[in-house]
Amino acid sequence: MAGIADRNNAPEQRLQRVKGTARISVVHLDGTSRLSRLYQEGSAKIRLPRTHNGSAADVVLINTSGGITGGDRLDWTIDVGKNARCVTTTQACEKIYRACAGTAHVATTLKVHEGAALSWLPQETILFDRSSLSRKLYIELAPNATLLLAEPMILGRRAMGETVREAFFTDRWRIRRGGRLLHAEETRLDGDIPALLDRTTTTAGACAFATVLVVHKDAGDMVEPIRGLLGNNAGASAIQTSAGNRLIVRMVASGGFELRRQLIPVIDWCNRKLTGTRQGLPKLWTI
């Protein structure tokens, strides 16, 4: 039997890490949106369930590893062809577990061509205590393309008695329309998470929050209908620039259930606006 000294002198074990890459292209053909190309490697998988929602392609992203921890890497690429419609979500909430070493990296690239519409609707990202995640989102839009983007976050599931005391999280967004920068956003949480969230300039103690962004020529006209769907801890505003018009919604909630209950009516309304009145939310988006 090996003693303590033998184990201490043994070479350090290299931990297994997840690596996944998936790319999908959707085209408009015969009045509907269909799969054109699909590539998947490692733990990153993509499925297209058959639905009767509408003419848009329903795309589901799957991380078969069951979660993400330090050192893992996932890369997603979605290309929506001319006049195509695509609604993308995830199979489940993405759980970011405690990192023994290193930072997890998730990179997403979205390209939406002329006359096309993309609804990017991943389910909630859940950060666990002492997790470490760096996320990047790059979007290229044609001048007349439309986009719905929703990114909900939960820092510890209070119903499960979880508290995130320390974590590292960065989120970088770059959205270009017709080659011009339309929207840039940076989020960084590092260190004492309860102290950061307790500030009135962040979430005033709420552990769940979400951002919804819509790029559409009628973004200004969408503000009042959206405000009618929001609760007390949310707000919406429209921004008009030479690069394009966009609507931004921010919301916070005391927990994941409260956040989803507030978020679903908003993204459902916006999704129908972009992809058609028959195009309901993916079945995975339920309460």
At a glance:
The chain is mostly beta strands. Helices cover 13% and strands 48% of the residues.
Provide tags for this entry:
287 residues, mainly beta, ten-stranded mixed beta sheet, seven-stranded mixed beta sheet, 17 strands
**Count of domains:** 1
The H/E string reads HEEEEEEEEEEEEEEHEHEEH
Radius of gyration over C-alpha positions, nearest whole angstrom: 20 Å
Unreliable runs, pLDDT <50, ≥5 residues? 1-13
Distance between the termini: 53 Å
Class by alpha and beta content: mainly beta
Task: Report the total helices.
Answer: 4
Query: Which overall shape is indicated by the principal axes computed on the Cα atoms?
Result: globular
The percent range for helix content is 10-25%
Strand content: over 45%
The mean pLDDT is 91
Describe the main β-sheet briefly. Answer: 10 strands, mixed
Number of DSSP strand runs: 17
Family: Belongs to the UreD family.
InterPro entries: UreD
Organism: Hoeflea poritis
Subunit structure: UreD, UreF and UreG form a complex that acts as a GTP-hydrolysis-dependent molecular chaperone, activating the urease apoprotein by helping to assemble the nickel containing metallocenter of UreC. The UreE protein probably delivers the nickel.
How would you characterize this protein structure?
Strand 13 and strand 14 (180-192) form a beta hairpin. The longest helix is centred in the last third of the chain and has 20 residues, at 256-275. The chain is globular and about 50 Å long. Residues 1-13 have low confidence and may be disordered. By secondary structure, it is mainly beta. The protein starts with a helix and ends in a 12-residue tail after the last helix. Strands 3, 4, 6, 7, 9, 10, 12, 15, 16 and 17 form a 10-stranded mixed sheet that branches. Strands 2-1-5-8-11-13-14 form a 7-stranded mixed sheet. It has helices at residues 4-9, 193-197, 223-227, 256-275, and strands at residues 19-29, 32-42, 44-47, 57-63, 73-80, 85-90, 94-96, 104-112, 117-120, 125-127, 132-141, 146-155, 166-177, 180-192, 208-215, 234-241, 244-253. The protein has one domain (17-275). Helices cover 13% and strands 48% of the residues.
